[in-house]
Structure to design on (821 residues):
C-alpha cells in the first residue's frame, strides 16, 4: 500500500525497485518551497504541502529551520553559487513519523535587491535510487566487455558504448548521428537483427541472450557469433521511444565449444553402435556440417571384415564406407559410398600418412594428380578449396582415413584444424577398432554356435524335423540357443530346445556342453523329467565348480553356467504317446491335421536348469500322425515391439496357416521366421518344427509269455513265424538266439510275465520286457563258468543293443540290419 510520502512526491511504485517503493524518478516539479533571504517560507508547491503535512497558509512565513531537525547547522548556505545537495535530513511532520529527505538548494537573485532560495526536497530513497540509476548508466556506457546500443523508434543506432566499437559522432563535432543497422552489418544479417528488434518494439516482449551470427561490413569474411538481448524503451506515458540492445561477442568461445562438441561426438561413438559401418557413418555425420562441407571415411578391407590390420602399404585395397555432404547430394566426380580405391603412386602416399595432413590450397595437388583420374576421384571434388586428411589408427595399426573438404565459402583448414583433427581421429580410431574386434568376436561366436548345432533337416521313422537358427545382429546377442533331434531306441525320437543365459563365445561353449550332456543322458533312455533332473544337477555342479575352482571368474562372480532353460519331449510312433517336460521353457505349438486352430501344449514348466530343489512334471499326450509341433526359444516371443501375448498369437496363427497348407516342416519354419523375424534380432532365435509319423500296425508284433521254461521255445516259434511272414528268414537264426537268451534271463532273474515285441523299420528291432528294475551287465565269462555268456552272444549278433527303464520294469532291445552282412 502506498505511503503518504510516495503520493506526495508523485512517485509510482514499480517492480523495478520494490525495496524502496520508488521507481527512481522524482515527480515533475517535486516538493519545493521558496524562501526569502531570511529563510522564511514564501511559497510552496502542492507536493510540498503533502510532504510537510500542512497547508500553504500555515507554512508561509515560517522559518525553514522549524520544519527540519538541525536545520540551523547548515542553513542558510551563504551567497554565491548553488549549494551542493544537503542530506539526508529529518523532516518534522505533525502526528506522522519523521521522514528522511535530501534537499537541493538553489539561490535566487531578487529584482529588488533581495535574495531568496528555492529548496527542493526529495525523499532519501528516491534520491538514492536515482543515483544508482545514473551510476548504472555510466557503467554501461563506460565498460568495454558488453556492447550496448540505443536505437530510436526507427531502430537506428543513436548511442553506443565503447564495447560496441562504433563511431557515431558527426565528424568534428560530438552530436550523435542516427545510423541504420544496414551500414554496420551486411544487409542479410541487418534484416535478421532488425526483425527481432522490431518485434521487441512492437510487442514489448524482451529477448534474452539470443544467439545470432553476423558479418560486419568492414570484414564480411569473418563470422561473428553474438549473444543478443533487447528491451523496449518507453516514455512517461508508456509510448515506445526506442530499443536498447546489449550483446556479447562469443565467437572464440563458441568455436571452442564447437570443437569440444566435435571431440565429444567422436567419443560418443565409443558408446554407440558396435557395427563398424555404422560407426563410420556416425563419424561422417559428426564432421559435417560443423567441421567440413564434405567428408568421406575410407577403411581397409581387413578392418571391414574384422581381421587384424597389418602395416599399410601402397596398393592395399580401401573401401569408402561412409560419405556426408553439407548441401545437396554427394558430388558425382567423387567416389561414392561402397566404392573401392587404392593408393598406388608414392607421391600420393601423403594422403594416408601416420599424422593428420592439411592441404590449405589444393592447386598443387590438382596439378600433381592431373593425369591420375582414379586419385582425383578419391580426393579432389570440383568445388573444394582445402583438404584435411585424418588417419584412423588404433594400437599402432592403420584402419583407414577420414577425408574432409571445405569449399571457398568457408575458412581454409589451418593448423588449429590439424590439432583438432588429430584428436577426433584418435578417438574415432579407437571406436572403429572396438567395432572391428566386436565383429570378429561376433563371427567367432556365430561360427561356434552353428558348428555346435545339429544338421537342419532330420528324417527318422517317427518324424520329419527341421531346425532353423537365426543369429543375433550383434555379438552381444549371439550364443546360447540350441535345438536337437535325437533318435532313441525302438523308433522313438526326442526333441530338445533350450537357451543358455548369457551371450558370446562363452554361452556358445556352454550350450555345446549342455547339448552333449543331453545326448549322453538320452542314450540312457531316461524319461523326460528324469533327464531334466540329471541335467539340472549337472548345471548346478558345473556352475559351482566355475565359481570356486582354480579358474574361477574374478571377484567370485558366476562363470559360464548362469542357468538355462530346456524343453525335452519324447515321441513314440508306435503308441502315438508324446511325453514333454520343461525346465522354465515355453510350451510348443501343436497343430492337428483336420482340426481348426493351433494351440499351445498345456505343460507345467519347472524351474530353469541350475536352480534346483523343485521337481519337473511330465505331461503325456496321444498325438495323431501328421501332427505338426513347433518348438521355439523364448527370444522369439521377445523380438520386436509387440507384447508376449501378441507374439504368441502371431506364432500360433502362422503355425496354423502352415498346417492348413500341409507345408513341410522346412517351409513352415521359413514362413514363421519370415513373418516374425523380418530383420536381424537382438538375440539368437531358434525354431524347431516337426511333422509326426506313425508306424503301421503291421510293422509290429507283440507277445506276452508267463515265467515258465516252455516260454522260451514258444517265443522262438512266434518270432520265427513272424519273420517268415515279413520275408526276413535270413534273420531267423540270429533273432531266435537273441530272443532265447533274453527270455531265459528274464525268466531266471525277473520272473514274469515276459513281453516280446518285434518292430520292422529301417532295422529289425527285438524287445524283451520284464518287471525287474535291475539293468543287465555285459561281462566276459571264464572258461569254467557255466553261464554269463548270454548278453555277450546278443551283442555279437546285433548291431546295437541296450536297455531302458519303464514304469513296470525294464526293456532290453536289440537292432539288426534287415540285410545281414
Amino acid at each position: 500500500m502506498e505511503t503518504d510520502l510516495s503520493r506526495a512526491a508523485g512517485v509510482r511504485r514499480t517492480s523495478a525497485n520494490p525495496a524502496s517503493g520508488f521507481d527512481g524518478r522524482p515527480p515533475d516539479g517535486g516538493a519545493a518551497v521558496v524562501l526569502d533571504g531570511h529563510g522564511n517560507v514564501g511559497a510552496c508547491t502542492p507536493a510540498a504541502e503533502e510532504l510537510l503535512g500542512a497547508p500553504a497558509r500555515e507554512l508561509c512565513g515560517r522559518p525553514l529551520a522549524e520544519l527540519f531537525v538541525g536545520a540551523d547547522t547548515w542553513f542558510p548556505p551563504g551567497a554565491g553559487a548553488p549549494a551542493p545537495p544537503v542530506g539526508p535530513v529529518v523532516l518534522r511532520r505533525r502526528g506522522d513519523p519523521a521522514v528522511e529527505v535530501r534537499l537541493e538548494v538553489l539561490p535566487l537573485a531578487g529584482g529588488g535587491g533581495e535574495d531568496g532560495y528555492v529548496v527542493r526536497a526529495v525523499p532519501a530513497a528516491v534520491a538514492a535510487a536515482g543515483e544508482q540509476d545514473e551510476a548504472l548508466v555510466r557503467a554501461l556506457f563506460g565498460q568495454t566487455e558488453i556492447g550496448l546500443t540505443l536505437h530510436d523508434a526507427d531502430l537506428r543506432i543513436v548511442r553506443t558504448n565503447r564495447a560496441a566499437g562504433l563511431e557515431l559522432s558527426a565528424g568534428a563535432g560530438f552530436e550523435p548521428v542516427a545510423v541504420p543497422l544496414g551500414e554496420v552489418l551486411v544487409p542479410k544479417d541487418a534484416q535478421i537483427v532488425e526483425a527481432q528488434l522490431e518485434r521487441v518494439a512492437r510487442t514489448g516482449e524482451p529477448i534474452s541472450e539470443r544467439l545470432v551470427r553476423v558479418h560486419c561490413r568492414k570484414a564480411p569474411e569473418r563470422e561473428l557469433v553474438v549473444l543478443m538481448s533487447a528491451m523496449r524503451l518507453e516514455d512517461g506515458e508508456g509510448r515506445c521511444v526506442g530499443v536498447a540492445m546489449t550483446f556479447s561477442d562469443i565467437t572464440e568461445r563458441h568455436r571452442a565449444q564447437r570443437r569440444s562438441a566435435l571431440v565429444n561426438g567422436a567419443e560418443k561413438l565409443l558408446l554407440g553402435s558396435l557395427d563398424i559401418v555404422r560407426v563410420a557413418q556416425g563419424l561422417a555425420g559428426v564432421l559435417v556440417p560443423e567441421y567440413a562441407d564434405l567428408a568421406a571415411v575410407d577403411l581397409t578391407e581387413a578392418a571391414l571384415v574384422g581381421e587384424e590390420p597389418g602395416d599399410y602399404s601402397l596398393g592395399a585395397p580401401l573401401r569408402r564406407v561412409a560419405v556426408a555432404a553439407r548441401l545437396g547430394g554427394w558430388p558425382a566426380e567423387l567416389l561414392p559410398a561402397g566404392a573401392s580405391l587404392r593408393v598406388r603412386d608414392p607421391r600420393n602416399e601423403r594422403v594416408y600418412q601416420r599424422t593428420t595432413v592439411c592441404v590449405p590450397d589444393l592447386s598443387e595437388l590438382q596439378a600433381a594428380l592431373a593425369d591420375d583420374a582414379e586419385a582425383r576421384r578419391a580426393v579432389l571434388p570440383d568445388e573444394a578449396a582445402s583438404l584435411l586428411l585424418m588417419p584412423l589408427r588404433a594400437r599402432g595399426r592403420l584402419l583407414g582415413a577420414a577425408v574432409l573438404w571445405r569449399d571457398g565459402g568457408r575458412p581454409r583448414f589451418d593448423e588449429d584444424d590439424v590439432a583438432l583433427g588429430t584428436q577426433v581421429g584418435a578417438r574415432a580410431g579407437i571406436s572403429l577398432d572396438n567395432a572391428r574386434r566386436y565383429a570378429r568376436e561376433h563371427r567367432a561366436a556365430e561360427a561356434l554356435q552353428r558348428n555346435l548345432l545339429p544338421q537342419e533337416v532330420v528324417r527318422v521313422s517317427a518324424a520329419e524335423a527341421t531346425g532353423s537358427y537365426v543369429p543375433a545382429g550383434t555379438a552381444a546377442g549371439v550364443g546360447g540357443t540350441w535345438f536337437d533331434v535325437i533318435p532313441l531306441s525302438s523308433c522313438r525320437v526326442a526333441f530338445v530346445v533350450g537357451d543358455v543365459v548369457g551371450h558370446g563365445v562363452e554361452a556358445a561353449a556352454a550350450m555345446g556342453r549342455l547339448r552333449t550332456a543331453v545326448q549322453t543322458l538320452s542314450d540312457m533312455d531316461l524319461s523326460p523329467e528324469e533327464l531334466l533332473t540329471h541335467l539340472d544337477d549337472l548345471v548346478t555342479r558345473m556352475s559351482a565348480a566355475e565359481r570356486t575352482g582354480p579358474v574361477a571368474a574374478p571377484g567370485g562372480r558366476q562363470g559360464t553356467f548362469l542357468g538355462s532353460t530346456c524343453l525335452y519331449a519324447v515321441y513314440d510312433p508306435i503308441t502315438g504317446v508324446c511325453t514333454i517336460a520343461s525346465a522354465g521353457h515355453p510350451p510348443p505349438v501343436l497343430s492337428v491335421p483336420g482340426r481348426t486352430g493351433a494351440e499351445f501344449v498345456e505343460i507345467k514348466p519347472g524351474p530353469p536348469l541350475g536352480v534346483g530343489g523343485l521337481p519337473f512334471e511330465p505331461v503325456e499326450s496321444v498325438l495323431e500322425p501328421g501332427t505338426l509341433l513347433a518348438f521355439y526359444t523364448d527370444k522369439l516371443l521377445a523380438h520386436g515391439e509387440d507384447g508376449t501375448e501378441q507374439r504368441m498369437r502371431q506364432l500360433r496363427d502362422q503355425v496354423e496357416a502352415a498346417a492348413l497348407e500341409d507345408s513341410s516342416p522346412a517351409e513352415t519354419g521359413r514362413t514363421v521366421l519370415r513373418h516374425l523375424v523380418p530383420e536381424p534380432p537382438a538375440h539368437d532365435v531358434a525354431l524347431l518344427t516337426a511333422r509326426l509319423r506313425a508306424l503301421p500296425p503291421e510293422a509290429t508284433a507283440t507277445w506276452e509269455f508267463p515265467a515258465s521254461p516252455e516260454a522260451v521255445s514258444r517265443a522262438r516259434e512266434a518270432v520265427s513265424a513272424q519273420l517268415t511272414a515279413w520275408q526276413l528268414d535270413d534273420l531267423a537264426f540270429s533273432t531266435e538266439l537273441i530272443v532265447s537268451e533274453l527270455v531265459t534271463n528274464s525268466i531266471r532273474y525277473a520272473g514274469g510275465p515276459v513281453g516280446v515285441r518285434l518292430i520292422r523299420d529301417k532295422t529289425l528291432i527285438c524287445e524283451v520286457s520284464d518287471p525287474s528294475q535291475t539293468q543287465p551287465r555285459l561281462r566276459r565269462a571264464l572258461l569254467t563258468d557255466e553261464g554269463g555268456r548270454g548278453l555277450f552272444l546278443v551283442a555279437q549278433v546285433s548291431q546295437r543293443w541296450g536297455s531302458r527303464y519303464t514304469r513296470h520294469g525294464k526293456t532290453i532291445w536289440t537292432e539288426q540290419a534287415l540285410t545281414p552282412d
Q: What stands out?
A: The CA atoms of residues 469 and 686 lie 5 Å apart. The mean pLDDT is 80. The domain at 144-249 is CATH 3.30.450.20 (Beta-Lactamase).
